[in-house]
Amino acid sequence: MTQSSEQSPGKTRHKRLGGWLPPDESAAAEFRARLSEAAQHSGDPKAQAVRGLHDLLRNDAALRLGMTNAIDEALDCGYTLGYRDIDGLVRILDYLMSYSPPFSDSSMVVCPFNAVVDWPMCMPSGYQVFRHPAFNAHLRHVLDSWSAFLSGPHSRGHLNTEPPNGWFSPEADKKIGLSQFLTHPDLPYWGFQSWNDFFTRRFRHGQRPVEGAGDDGVIVSPCEAKPYALRRDVALVDDFWIKSQPYSLRDMLGHAEEELARRYVGGTVYQAYLNAYSYHRWHAPVSGTVVRAYNIAGTYFSCSEAQGRDPDGLNDSQGYITAMATRAVIVIDTGNPAVGQIGCVFVGMGDVSSCVVEVVPGQRIQKGEELGYFQYGGSTICVLFEPDKVPDIACDPNRIEDPPIVKVNTRLASV
Description:
Elements lengths: L4 E3 L5 E3 L9 H15 L8 H12 L1 H16 L9 H10 L16 H5 L9 H4 L3 H18 L19 H7 L18 H5 L18 E3 L5 E7 L16 H5 L4 H6 L4 E6 L7 E3 L4 E9 L21 H4 L5 E7 L7 E10 L4 E3 L6 E2 L4 E5 L3 E8 L6 E2 L17 E4 L1
Antiparallel strand pairs: 1-2, 3-15, 4-5, 5-13, 6-12, 7-8, 7-11, 8-9, 9-13, 10-12, 14-15
């Protein structure tokens, strides 16, 4: 897990987490410049979803003003965007509709859309634009359109062994550990049907055994993720947009689920984020019965202004986005009074970030069974514990400096 520091043109120093964007801003700027050069002769947008977003930004005076100002503010701060106005931004977005991410050993850009809107999204005029419901609805159409490309055979251009861009090259293998996963090197594209098929690859049998499989008191990690935060005595409603970003249960779980949110008032929230090279499927942290399984529509690149300029936009806003971003909620009733109901919130952080739920309420599941998965994009997860239950957290980021990635199906907590 790389957590390299980066010095922006401003004075604030941040870290880029998870390897989704290059640790150095100059590499991200160079990437945006290459996209701009590739897109400059493309003319009017060809993708219907991009045309719809373009029309919205041209025809809605408030959004046009906000986005224009956000771009100007980023340029005035000295950032290289690769575009100077809305038309230039839209040309790049249209070009990305058929873009398949290559591997890079030195300056990886796993989230190209995040890289393109990186600085306007966290400029004073950008915050409201990226929260606007109509803007996010059109942005969702754009990202869904790109996801359709990534789910098709034409997205497999870099699923090969050729360095430096091939995802099966020796350099990529060092990052990913391909031998852990189900692959078929004797088949074209190693048997993967699309880029998204590769992104959601599965472990080989036996790679992630379920710890405490027969012990109801052991809660395992639902994802392969690095601990980010642990907060106790969480509130039903809190000011999640301020600097400390406290968790606001009703906002996290959705206003229609206030009764569910009240179950966790005074309880504990554990949050962790996924690495770009990691496993992106979710597994049941406990055995029990699924009592809730639903998706919440939300924002895609909205970040908290309380954090100031953020080189990944969403890095320093991970508490905030649990109440704002597109996400899925799954709750499992263990039937064990000492453990209670375990809530899981799977949050899409950037780019496509589709949250695909594979279970339904009433379904009985065993610890370690698959619950769903993230399609392409950055992601973070929260596990919710009821009050006065599960006091022992195995990898508490409040006590451990730079904690290691917690592997899926390994012990996260116990009673």
